[in-house]
């Protein structure tokens, strides 16, 4: 019953996001969910991530933390759309370099999946909202959103609740499977999530994608 209520609320908040004027999360200026001045003020990440994962902002920045929490827990979908756009604009050069591996084919964009019951309860997947916007900002149809390839088969404990890197890596091991291995053979793939901490989740997905024959896989996240 709770997940039905959450779906109704998600739909309600999506409609509000679309039809009502928006105030900037940072300075409250009317007109855009994060205004250009506040975007310029967000601290870029300087902390290193692990191999093959690139993050945009520092999660300790108050505005980016507020934005991600508003998207993740308060159904503000327009924030996800804006974050996907910002992620795309910052990673254009990386996308251009990745095209060298594609031989004219599209680049698959895979959002980190939620466990089925968790997504039903929440009513949406924030990584998918970001990834969808990321793809829509590419006007040459190079990026192809694929949310049907990687499945989360184990309902793991939330990574954010584990305060030890080894526990996080152990927690996520074996949690994901490839549903359509034939679809990714020889493909170039971008895996997208909202936040990475230890990088365990995306690394696990990168590992199984490569095992299934993907040619090149890289992870992009909004914050670290």
Provide tags for this entry.
224 residues, alpha/beta, Rossmann fold, two-stranded antiparallel ribbon, 7 strands, 16% strand
Radius of gyration using CA atoms only = 17 Å
Q: Count the DSSP helices.
A: 9
Series of H and E elements = HHEHHHEHHEEHEEHE
End-to-end distance, in Å?
A: 34 Å
Uncertain spans: none
Domain module count: 1
Summarize the biggest pleated sheet. 5 strands, parallel
Percentage of residues in strands? 15-25%
Query: What is the molecular shape?
Result: globular
> How are strands sequenced across the largest beta sheet?
1-7-6-2-3
Describe this structure in words.
By secondary structure, this protein is α/β, with parallel strands linked by helices. The protein has one domain: Rossmann fold, CATH 3.40.50.2020. The chain contains nine helices and seven strands, in the order H-H-E-H-H-H-E-H-H-E-E-H-E-E-H-E. The strands form two sheets. A five-stranded parallel sheet has the order 1-7-6-2-3, sandwiched between helices. Strands 4-5 form a two-stranded antiparallel ribbon. Strand 6, helix 9 and strand 7 form a beta-alpha-beta unit. The longest helix is centred in the N-terminal third of the chain and has 18 residues. It is globular. 35% of the residues are buried. The model has no long low-confidence stretch (mean pLDDT 87).
Summarize the structure.
This protein is of the alpha/beta class. Helix content is 43%, strand content 16%.
Question: Helix and strand layout, with pairings?
Answer:
Elements: H1 2-19, H2 36-41, E1 53-57, H3 62-74, H4 77-90, H5 92-98, E2 107-111, H6 116-122, H7 126-136, E3 143-145, E4 150-152, H8 165-172, E5 176-178, E6 188-195, H9 200-211, E7 216-223
Parallel strand pairs: 1-7, 2-3, 2-6, 6-7
Antiparallel strand pairs: 4-5
């Amino acid at each position: 019953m709770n997940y039905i209520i959450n779906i109704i609320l998600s739909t309600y908040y999506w409609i509000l996001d679309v039809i009502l004027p928006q105030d900037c999360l940072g300075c409250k200026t009317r007109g855009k969910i994060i205004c250009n001045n506040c975007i310029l003020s967000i601290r870029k990440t300087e902390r290193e991530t692990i191999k093959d994962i690139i993050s945009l902002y520092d999660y300790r920045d108050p505005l980016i933390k507020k934005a991600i929490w508003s998207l993740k827990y308060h159904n503000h979908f327009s924030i996800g759309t804006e974050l996907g756009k910002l992620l795309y604009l910052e990673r254009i050069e990386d996308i251009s370099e990745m095209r060298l591996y594609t031989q004219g084919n599209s680049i698959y964009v895979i959002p980190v999946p939620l466990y089925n019951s968790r997504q039903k309860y929440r009513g949406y997947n924030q990584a998918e909202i970001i990834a969808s916007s990321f793809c829509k900002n590419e006007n040459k149809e190079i990026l192809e959103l694929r949310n049907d390839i990687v499945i989360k088969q184990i309902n793991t404990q939330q990574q954010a609740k584990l305060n030890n890197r080894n526990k996080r890596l152990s927690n996520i091991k074996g949690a994901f499977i490839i549903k359509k291995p034939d679809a990714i053979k020889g493909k170039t793939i971008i895996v997208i999530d909202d936040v990475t901490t230890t990088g365990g989740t995306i690394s696990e997905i990168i590992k199984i994608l490569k095992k299934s024959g993907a040619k090149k896989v890289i992870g992009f996240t909004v914050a670290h």
